[in-house]
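Our consortium's second objective concerns turning raw sequence data into structural hypotheses that experimental partners can test. To show how far this objective has progressed, the report includes one record in full. It was chosen at random from the queue rather than selected for favorable results. The single chain below, 251 residues long, was entered without modification.
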Amino acid sequence: MSTPDPSVTDVVREKYGQAALRVMEGKSSGCCGSAPGTDCSDPITANLYTDGETAGLPEEAVRGSLGCGNPTALAELHAGETVLDLGSGGGIDVLLSARRVGPTGKAYGLDMTDEMLSLARENAAKAGATNVEFLKGQIEAIPLPDASVDVIISNCVINLASDKRAVFAEIARVLRPGGRMGVSDIVADDTLTPKQRAERGSYVGCIAGALSFREFRSGLREAGLVDIELVPTRRVADGMHSVIVRATKAM
């Protein structure tokens, strides 16, 4: 884990801003920060949501999905809960969460990219979602009070943060006691060095910045989270996996 790197943040913001603009222009967003026109049947982003889940959502929300999993399915959301999506992008997981928590619940989306926030707010308006709110900020400094969230989800975003330790500390801070996280992310085999991860893909492509299984577990544990579980779901490169990550804040 590392200290914040403004240069990394700027590159990520630029690439995902460009992806949002492509979606608003009716084009493909690319895959997890990849180049325009990339075939999104790739092993990272393909087939993450069922037709039943995306039915009724704006086309732009579906096209703007740049994730590596379906955190709304793995988080087991319940009516009345407050959910926060870290790095919410075009808003697909926020809108799906809003459906699951219902009118008595609330779904927040947090993103640092103005273009993505504009896209997400447009999608929420088109979907008629009234229990959602999109916030501008970085996942290393979540703009919500302590112990204000029941569930944190995230879809292939933690690997993009330059300071994962700060992200884990913020997750623990905003979760209520007994609150839980259910995220999808790219994780590396413990045998791969950071240099070897970078050889398999770029930072904005969700590969070079990935933690190893050991590093991810250690970071969550240091932040005070318990019941930590990392489950690989698909191989995305040699030694790199899309992984379901679950953990709980102790009571």
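The partners drew two points from this record. The mean pLDDT is 84. The radius of gyration is 16 Å. Both points have been shared with the crystallography group to help prioritize constructs.
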